[in-house]
Design brief:
By secondary structure, the chain is of the alpha+beta class. It has three domains: 8-93, no CATH class; 126-228, Butyryl-CoA Dehydrogenase, subunit A, domain 2; 235-383, Butyryl-CoA Dehydrogenase, subunit A, domain 3 (Up-down Bundle), CATH 1.20.140.10. The chain is built from twelve helices and ten strands. It has helices at 8-24, 35-51, 70-80, 86-89, 96-106, 109-120, 234-268, 282-310, 316-340, 342-346, 352-359, 369-383; strands at residues 126-129, 147-151, 154-165, 172-179, 182-189, 195-200, 212-223, 227-228, 272-273, 276-277. A hairpin with a 2-residue loop joins strand 4 and strand 5. The protein is globular, with a radius of gyration of 22 Å. It binds flavin-adenine dinucleotide. The site of flavin-adenine dinucleotide has 20 residues, from strand 1, strand 3 and helix 12.
């Protein structure tokens, strides 16, 4: 009798893979939908996932989460990330996952009850509002132009934000604004009369849950308790949030690029040219080999950074290196998958062109590649780090 060597975690991953292939991928439309349609799909998938014990990777088991650490989350998120709806089904699509990660560190008991707990339970949705049009903050957070001033027992916020993911469906926003003490964070309900979502900004992404909103904050009064954490610490908080967010993006996008390459491999093993299968041409084999090498390196870097985070080590330098590498590698892999599938690759019959459009913006958000490269190089030279 052969003894199975599958661990409970292996069995769990197989179950998740079946769920993604059989329940989640068939619900993909690869189109921007109304927020209501997107929410209906999200709720359906979340119920289906919870019914078989699949919840947010890092949320506590007591509220339906999986209670995993960062390293364990890598494998789960890679499988879930094979579909853009996978993280939605597991209630950890951005901005929910990075917002809950950072709120966990910052909230007081009242904020936990009103914001974090409902967010973790899927009853309220969040967005994170930092980026501003020129001359405000983009790559350079020091250019932050939104202001918050004290008025009696309240704060009054004024500012202009854009590209705020999920703003169209959010119940509250984490707003980054300048105060006397420096950069500070505030919790603002989106039904506050001073919080105006003026439009969803269409992007090249084929699907965006809750859109990317442009927001005007005008004479926006919030109570003193809206201040999150300590005033003046906002840039440190943004760093924490971004580090975790980057890692989750790396994990899910490795899954998406891996799916793209699976589709390409299937194609080249069924299509012939010059009397043999495309997959028997060495140039094609070389492209596939390069894709696997890139994904292997991307996985290893992502897992290494995750392990460091689990060990409580600083990941500032390593997460920058991983983010640059993974963002570029997954895009190159998806681009190769499109190339290998010829005309079908650029069509809408396969999801490859949509995957490519989904992956491209990752080289810009959570720190553009150039900004990370500049920071890595500066750190290396100033600290005399050895390669
Ligand atoms: C799909 C998407 C979702 C987003 N979601 C959110 C969100 O939820 N919340 C939020 O607050 N923001 C969000 N953003 C905004 C994102 O954080 C910014 O796009 C990012 O910080 C870059 O700012 P910017 O677009 O103003 O680019 P800019 O600062 O104008 O920079 C433009 C380009 O200049 C180059 N560059 C910039 N600085 C340097 C430098 N020091 N050295 C060399 N080159 C440089 C880079 O190539 C960069 O891409 C999102 C963006 C996208 C595309």
């Amino acid at each position: 009798m052969t003894k199975s060597s599958a661990t409970p975690f292996d069995t769990f991953k197989q179950q998740l893979r079946r769920f993604i292939d059989e329940v989640v991928i068939p619900r993909e439309t690869w189109r921007s939908e109304t927020h209501e349609q997107a929410q209906t799909t999200a709720r359906y998938l979340q119920q289906q996932a919870l019914a078989i014990g699949l919840g947010a990777p890092q949320a506590e088991k007591a509220i339906g989460g999986l209670g995993l650490n960062w390293e364990q989350s890598c494998e789960i998120m890679e499988i879930a990330g094979r579909s853009y709806l996978g993280p939605v089904a597991l209630q950890c699509a951005p901005p929910i996952q990075p917002d809950s990660f950072v709120l966990e560190k910052l909230v007081n008991s009242g904020q936990r009850r009103l914001y974090l707990q409902p967010l973790l339970e899927g009853k309220r949705l969040s967005c994170f509002a930092m980026t501003e049009p020129a001359p405000g903050a983009g790559s350079d957070p020091q250019m932050l132009a939104s202001r918050a001033r004290r008025a009696g027992n309240e704060w009054v916020l004024d500012g202009h934000k854009w590209f705020i993911t999920g703003a169209g469906q959010a119940d509250f926003a984490i707003v980054v604004a300048r105060t006397e003490e420096g950069v500070s964070w505030f919790l603002v309900d989106t039904d506050n009369p001073g919080f105006k979502l003026i439009r969803d900004i269409p992007t090249m992404e084929p699907f965006d849950m809750g859109g990317h909103g442009e927001i005007i904050l005008e004479n926006c009064h919030v109570p003193a308790q809206a201040l999150l954490g300590e005033p003046g610490k906002g840039l440190d908080y943004a760093q924490w949030r971004l580090e975790g967010a980057r890692l989750f993006h790396c994990m899910r996008f490795i899954g998406l690029a891996s799916r793209a390459m699976d589709l390409a491999q299937h194609y080249v093993m069924h299509r012939e040219a010059q009397g043999r299968l495309l997959g028997e041409h060495q140039l094609v084999q070389g492209i596939i080999a390069d894709a696997h090498i890139k994904l292997y390196a991307a996985r290893m870097m992502t897992r290494d950074v995750s392990k460091r985070l689990d060990q409580g080590l600083s990941i500032r330098h390593h997460s920058s290196m991983a983010k640059v590498y993974v963002a570029e590698a997954v895009y190159q892999v998806a681009d190769s998958a499109v190339q290998l599938c010829g005309a079908l690759g650029v069509s809408e019959d396969l999801p490859l062109s949509s995957i490519l459009r989904m992956l491209r913006p990752f080289r810009i958000y959570d720190g553009a590649s150039e900004v990370h490269r500049a920071a890595i190089g500066r750190r290396v030279l100033h600290k005399g780090l050895s390669a």
